[in-house]
Design goal:
The chain is of the alpha+beta class and 225 residues long. Helices cover 28% and strands 21% of the residues. It has 7 helices and 8 strands, in the order ααααββαββαββββα.
Length: 225
C-alpha cells in the first residue's frame, strides 16, 4: 500500500523544479499579465496533442503544422480546443500561485493561423482586447536575451545562464535564407526563449516556446485531462 501511494504523494507536492518554473513564468520583467490567462488554456492544447506552444507578445500559436495532415484534421482539432476552453482546470492546490495567475479566465476561443515562415496552417489564439496593453501582453515587447538572463539572475544566482542552447531551422522550401531560431532553454527545457536570425536587432526575443505536457503536469491537478 505504501509503495502504491508514494508516487501519488510525490506528485501532489510541488517540487523545486515546479517552484522555479512558476517563478520564471510569473516574472514581471519577462511576461505580462496575459501569461497567467494563457496558462489556463494549456489543457486545451494538451487535448489536441500539441506538445509545444509558441508565444508572441499578442498571440500564441501551436507548433503543430497542419500542412500535411488531412483537410479536416485542423477543423477537428479546432473544435476539440474550443471545447476545452469552456472550463479551465484547477491549478494544483499545493502551489503558491502568483496573483497574476488567479481569477484569470483563458483567452477567447482559438482560430486558424497562417504562419508566414512556413506558409502552413496552425492553431492559434489572439490576445484579448482588454489585455492589449504593454503590461497585459503574453510576453513583453523588445525583450532581449540579455534582459532574460538579467531577470532570471535576480531569482537565483546562476539561473540566468541557460541550461542548454540549441538551434532550429524552419524552411518553407522557397526562401533562400530559412529562419534559424536559437533556443535558450530553462526549467529543464519547459521554457525556451528563442532569438531569430531575422530579428531587427541582435539578441531580440522572437518568441517563447512552452513545453505543454511538462508545464501542464507540474501546474495542474494530477487528474486534470
Amino acid at each position: 500500500m505504501l509503495l502504491c501511494a508514494s508516487p501519488v504523494a510525490a506528485r501532489a507536492a510541488p517540487t523545486e523544479d515546479t517552484a522555479r518554473l512558476l517563478a520564471i513564468l510569473s516574472h514581471g520583467k519577462l511576461f505580462g499579465t496575459g501569461m497567467g490567462r494563457l496558462l489556463g488554456s494549456l489543457r486545451g492544447w494538451k487535448s489536441t496533442g500539441t506538445r509545444r506552444l509558441m508565444v508572441f507578445p499578442e498571440r500564441a500559436v501551436g507548433a503543430t503544422s497542419y500542412a500535411r495532415l488531412p483537410p479536416d484534421a485542423l477543423k477537428k482539432h479546432l473544435a476539440v480546443l474550443k471545447g476545452a476552453f469552456e472550463k479551465p482546470p484547477p491549478f494544483h492546490k499545493a502551489l503558491k500561485l502568483p496573483k497574476v495567475f488567479l481569477q484569470n479566465p483563458p483567452p477567447p476561443p482559438p482560430r486558424e493561423w497562417l504562419l508566414s515562415e512556413d506558409d502552413a496552417p496552425h492553431l492559434g489564439i489572439d490576445l484579448p482586447a482588454d489585455l492589449a496593453t504593454p503590461e497585459g501582453k503574453f510576453i513583453h515587447e523588445d525583450l532581449t536575451i540579455t534582459d532574460v538572463r538579467a531577470a532570471l539572475e535576480t531569482l537565483q544566482p546562476g539561473l540566468g545562464k541557460p541550461e542548454a542552447v540549441e538551434h532550429q531551422v524552419i524552411s518553407n522550401g522557397f526562401e533562400r535564407r530559412p529562419t534559424v531560431l536559437t533556443l535558450h532553454r530553462y526549467a529543464r527545457g519547459a521554457v525556451s526563449f528563442a532569438t531569430s536570425n531575422y530579428a531587427p536587432a541582435a539578441g531580440r526575443i522572437d518568441r517563447v516556446i512552452l513545453d505543454v505536457p511538462t508545464i501542464h503536469a507540474q501546474l495542474f491537478e494530477p487528474d486534470s485531462p
